[in-house]
Amino acid sequence: MNSAITSWWDTNWSGDRSEALVFGRTGKLIRVRGFGRYRKPSVGIGRSGKSRRANFELRMRAEGAGRKSAFRETGRAVVFRTNMSSKTLKIAALAGDGIGPEVMREAIKVLRAVEKKFALTINITEAPVGWAGIDAAGKALPDATLKLCKESDCILFGSVGLPDRDPTIPKEERPERAALLRLRKEFSLFANLRPVKLPKELSHACPLAKERQGTGIDILVVRELTGGMYFGQPKKTEQISAGASKATILRAIDTMVYTTPEIERIAHVAFKTARLRRKKVTSIDKANVLENGVLWRDVVTTVAKEYPDVQLEHMFVDNGAMQLVLKPTQFDVMLCENMFGDILSDEAAALGGSLGMLPSASLGSAGSTGQFGFYEPAGGTAPDIAGKNLANPIAQILSTALMLRYTFNLNDAALAIENAVGKVISDGLRTGDIFSASETNARKVGTTEMGDAIAAAI
Ligand code: IPM
Ligand code: MG
């Protein structure tokens, strides 16, 4: 049987509901959404990750490139990478400290609206982490919380760490290291994606002059997350003797370590994601001083040979920090080791209007969808504004969009969230961090009202 549909890509099945990117009759990629019934369900869709041939009968609505037509198809197609073997999305929600709980509440509100609109079943289990974990179970990452994470499809994370709390708790047991870094390592989440986008309506919130913003800032920071100085050994503070005076001198040591495979795998993520964007990777290093920088540059150059369609540029990190404020529009994907990525992603976030707008996805494999992931706002606990209904929930809400896209392959649901955020921004709703009195039609709102508006716009 001949079919107009020659192949499937990124197919997403849940029961008899389907979403897919399909090569249509013309060979062009179109997006389809619809409901399918398999004529022979037994040869239907395989388990997660398998490619199968399947008979199908679909009624679909094609969207994309301005077309909106309904059509019916029957035939046989190869289904690649099916991901949704069950309808239930199992999410561990770890709100943490500071503004974490209040922005998480809004993100869950938005998720519930998505659940309704897309007829999903979303199973969200909340568990304590960070100081909330220490208070509840004596540990920043309680055993029960870790167990829940292992049993879930993904982790939706808030933020942890309150620098001023209880100085008697040793640094190794404090939330940043004992919960956040531990989870990143535990699940081998080496690829951290931080998409920075300045909406045109928030041009005033960007610290750069209008002419430097060009036609818009749109940067993806790809940060290596499980190596470098965050984890390298030795890592310690030691006493050293101080010659004749015998005064105690302390010496702190952090070690920057990267191996070839660690650099290769994150480089692949950067090139793969660049292919879906403007096809340019700027690799950040300090090759003029650091051994790590020399190796980083060599390995990235080698990996780049597999992606001849993607332009590669190398940049020293100090220059990168400067170029971000001079000409941010030159960047598409910025590939960074762990600490450089931490620093530059905050700088880039400010260019995108506010750190409160920057979501992130931490993944454990190179660019594939349907995988375990960890989703968190890139900003911190912001203790100064916690509990005051002032925090911007958008970074947390956009993190749930990344979650739907990368772990559940629900691109339409992810887009629904991103579009809803875009709508409330263009409607003029602003939390304090993105508010300017000079804007006409802007209205200052609190965390809850912002969440309500986004949920309503789904
Ligand atoms: C981030 C944060 C964390 C980091 C802190 C809270 C440990 O700044 O995710 O960017 O340094 O990675
Ligand atoms: Mg940071």
Automatic annotation (TrEMBL):
Question: Which residues are in the Isopropylmalate dehydrogenase-like domain?
Answer: 90-454
Asked if the Swiss-Prot or TrEMBL record annotates the protein with the keyword Oxidoreductase, the reply is yes
Query: Where, per UniProt, does this protein localize?
Result: Cytoplasm
Q: Which annotated residues bind substrate?
A: R184, R194, R223, D318
Instruction: Give the protein's cofactors.
Output: Mn(2+); Mg(2+)
EC number assigned by the record:
1.1.1.85
Site features described as Important for catalysis, chain residue numbers? Y230, K286
Subunit comment for this entry? Homodimer.
Q: What does this protein do?
A: Catalyzes the oxidation of 3-carboxy-2-hydroxy-4-methylpentanoate (3-isopropylmalate) to 3-carboxy-4-methyl-2-oxopentanoate. The product decarboxylates to 4-methyl-2 oxopentanoate.
Concerning its family, UniProt says: Belongs to the isocitrate and isopropylmalate dehydrogenases family. LeuB type 1 subfamily.
Q: What is this protein called?
A: 3-isopropylmalate dehydrogenase
* Organism of derivation: Pedosphaera parvula (strain Ellin514)
- Gene encoding it? leuB
